[in-house]
Amino acid sequence: MAFRHACDFLFCGICGTLLSFESLHFARCALCGFKRDAKELVGRETRYTITAEDIRRELKIEPFVILESAPIDDEEVQRAVVNEECPQCHHPQLEYYTKQLRSADEGQTVFYECPQCSHKFSINT
């Protein structure tokens, strides 16, 4: 893999962990203690992108989501209705709403609820 080979200097030669710069003279592996001389890294260009999702995942923060079923101004939010049969009680219509739970380049998750028996299920689109 060409990309991995081009970036190998950033990783520990023993266990593969990303190296940390603890001084101007060397980079050290936090896991096993392997050291790489800073002279090996001079002149190498590195780039990476950090997204908001990466930060939330690293800090173990749940995404901020407003529940559609929560009352707003003492009024219940109305959900959209689709003419699909409930798999549990066979009621002819289901209420639904969507949320973007995965990364932006993936589809939304559709949450369904039967107004008759309250059966809930979801589908990733």
UniProtKB/TrEMBL annotation:
Its main location: nucleus. Keywords: DNA-directed RNA polymerase, Metal-binding, Nucleus, Signal, Transcription, Zinc, Zinc-finger. GO terms for molecular function: DNA-directed RNA polymerase activity; nucleic acid binding; zinc ion binding. Residues 82-122 form the TFIIS-type domain. Zn(2+) 1 binds at residues 12, 15, 29, 32. Residues 1-20 form the signal peptide. Pfam families: Zn_ribbon_TFIIS (PF01096). GO terms for biological process: termination of RNA polymerase I transcription. It is found in: Nucleus, Nucleolus. InterPro entries: Rpa12/Rpb9/Rpc10/TFS (IPR012164), Zn_ribbon_RPA12_C (IPR034004), Znf_TFIIS (IPR001222). Zn(2+) 2 binds at residues 86, 89, 114, 117. DNA-dependent RNA polymerase catalyzes the transcription of DNA into RNA using the four ribonucleoside triphosphates as substrates. Belongs to the archaeal rpoM/eukaryotic RPA12/RPB9/RPC11 RNA polymerase family. This is DNA-directed RNA polymerase subunit. It comes from Canna indica (Indian-shot).
